[in-house]
């Protein structure tokens, strides 16, 4: 989390929406073998609970149950050039959205993991255009084989540490110039995020 309070929020609904929209993050834990990270889809299952699954062979699997772990989600980000400032006598920076969620992890039972998989499929298939794929199209052998190769977890969020660093120190006209410059450079997502904060 960025130390400047200007870049923080206590709006849990906003943070949940950001995580839900992105739907993917990283789980960090220090193990006896050292720090480890896993990359995984994430799904909210309540106000403060995130579910995810990992390959059974992942280095984190045998250490997560009962541990306090950190989930991070990275949103829009990009280089901000001084060329977009009214006074160019400064240095570049990087604007970004990042959310850290710390909490206690528990292992899911098979029924909960099965439900998580169906919920993930529904969530992401519904976002795509065209004819959707349904889990019933996977054979029982295929589903069961893959199911045995993964382990599900739930992280109960106890600490929310967001950073929405979106040029808040700059004037409204500079923020619009930054957004316009980012958009021209192809970073429409960050441009829209900056404009959304201003609105």
UniProtKB/TrEMBL annotation:
Matching entries from SUPFAM superfamilies are given as:
FMN-binding split barrel
Q: Name one Pfam family in it.
A: FMN_bind_2
Q: Which domain of life is it from?
A: Bacteria
Q: Which InterPro entries match?
A: Split_barrel_FMN-bd, TR_PAI2-type
Name the PANTHER family for this protein: PROTEASE SYNTHASE AND SPORULATION PROTEIN PAI 2
Q: What is this protein called?
A: FMN-binding negative transcriptional regulator
Q: Which organism is it from?
A: Qipengyuania mesophila
Give the taxonomic lineage as stored in the record.
Answer: Bacteria, Pseudomonadati, Pseudomonadota, Alphaproteobacteria, Sphingomonadales
């Amino acid at each position: 989390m960025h130390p400047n309070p200007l870049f923080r929020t206590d709006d849990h609904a906003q943070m949940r929406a950001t995580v839900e929209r992105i739907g993917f993050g990283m789980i960090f834990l220090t193990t006896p073998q050292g720090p480890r990270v896993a990359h995984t889809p994430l799904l909210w299952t309540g106000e403060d609970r995130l579910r995810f699954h990992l390959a059974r062979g992942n280095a984190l699997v045998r250490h997560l149950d009962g541990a306090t772990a950190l989930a991070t989600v990275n949103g829009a980000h990009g280089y901000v050039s001084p060329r977009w400032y009214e006074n160019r006598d400064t240095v570049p920076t990087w604007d970004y959205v990042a959310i850290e969620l710390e909490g206690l992890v528990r292992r899911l039972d098979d029924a909960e993991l099965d439900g998580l998989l169906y919920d993930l499929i529904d969530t992401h298939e519904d976002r795509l255009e065209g004819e959707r794929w349904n889990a019933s199209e996977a054979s029982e052998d295929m589903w069961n084989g893959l199911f045995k190769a993964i382990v599900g977890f739930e992280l109960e969020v106890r600490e929310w540490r967001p950073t929405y660093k979106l040029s808040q120190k700059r004037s409204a006209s500079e923020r619009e110039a930054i957004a316009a410059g980012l958009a021209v450079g192809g970073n429409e997502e960050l441009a829209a995020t900056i404009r959304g904060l201003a609105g």
